[in-house]
Amino acid sequence: xxxxxxxxxxxxxxxxxxxxxxxxxxxxxxxxxxxxxxxxxxxxxxxxxxxxxxxxxxxxxxxxxxxxxxxxxxxxxxxxxxxxxxxxxxxxxxxxxxxxxxxxxxxxxxxxxxxxxxxxxxxxxxxxxxxxxxxxxxxxxxxxxxxxxxxxxxxxxxxxxxxxxxxxxxxxxxxxxxxxxxxxxxxxxxxxxxxxxxxxxxxxxxxx
Length: 208
Prior knowledge:
Structural class: alpha/beta
Largest sheet: 4 strands, mixed
Distance between the termini: 107 Å
Number of strands: 6
CATH architecture of the largest domain: Orthogonal Bundle
Radius of gyration: 47 Å
Order of helices and strands: HHEEHEEHEHHHE
Strand order of the largest sheet: 2-1-4-3
CATH class of the largest domain: Mainly Alpha
Shape: rod-shaped
Number of helices: 7
Helix content: 25-40%
Mean pLDDT: 77
């Protein structure tokens, strides 16, 4: 406190000792106040930092489309392996292969079924019975056509197997339409009415 008082007294004595007129003193005082005020403004401006808000730019990340791979074969214009979006249906796979050929039979294919990755969609050619050759076929020895392709066989072909009647044949085709091709022959056990004993009756006569 004593130092402050001494400083004030020194300033007052200095002010009184100035050889200025009262007008000059007032002008000097006004100038001093102006200088102090300007300095304060400059200090405030220097202390305040300009805050620049950077605009956040949204980066568009391309959406990744998940694909599945299917093999389209049989009576289609462009058989081959195609990549399709997830949840595509059988009709989309056939369209990707150029659609079916004239005379193709899709009656046993569930076109609305959702595809599974790695499966095969096979389109059959409509079977036509040639009446003029039936008499010749009766006299000729039966032709060995080999095992029946379980994933391509029609209901009539399935009924020709031992122990498979119209009911089981329709169940096999319905299961195939709903779940896709059989991956193994043993997968037939998942069809209602087919057990190990039943499967052993015709297992040697079928293939995938």
